[in-house]
Amino acid sequence: MQFNDNDVDWLSDLLAAVAVQEIMPRFRQLGTGDIKQKTSALDLVTEADTSAERVITERLRERYPDAFVLGEEACELDASLLGKLKDAPLAFIIDPVDGTYNFATGVPLFGVMLAVVVNGETVAGIIHDPVGKDWIIGVKGAGSHIRSAFDIRQKVSVTPPAAVNEMLGAISWQFLADPLRSTLARNHAKCKASFGFRCAAHEYRLIASGNAHFAIFNKLMPWDHLAGVLIHQEAGGHAARFDGSAYLPRHLDGGLLIAPDKANWQDLRRTLWSE
Fold first, then answer.
1. What is the mean pLDDT of the chain?
2. Domain limits at 237?
């Protein structure tokens, strides 16, 4: 089966159904044996992650038998899967629980993320909030919108450009190394305020819906960023790697800065990276 824009509602409903079935029954109900540490005490995986990814993957393969499905937890077991994304005519990229640390510690800021990639280009991005029971969705060339639990759809757009000293933004510190880490930490004080949710799903939603200005990420795993970047771009925003080059599904490094527009991106790049 080929993918088309009409499939976005089916995919959105799939994420919501799996959240009800596999994720929310485990929220604040996890036992110690249900949480495992991956690379650090802040990098966790739970039974909700693995169970949700398994069900989403199964349903996707039933509907799209020829598609490549890339899930965060499957890639944890077989890192070679990452290399197959660039050659896939149709691919679905899943983050079953983005913000696992929040989920595991009982903080209600986590999401389910899914991106659709066709011949190396992201064409749809969906972020579902299992707590709020709604979605933020972007489709290539069709803009971005929030779909409520009552199926009300409202277009979203990024906030208008602003002076750097009037900006609200997030910097993902834990994956930055010095000297850039220290430089950004020092210069972030030149902005009006900062935020950090430890959840890319909610950070992208906040920025794409016009409630914050920018975010900086260094670790570029596709399940963390493909959906959010497309949603942000379709809401009118500008995203690029630290060197100004376009962010593509195959990219795993080079950092990422998202901003209201290209001129604001350049202002942030110049101000936050200044020595």
1. 93
2. 164-272
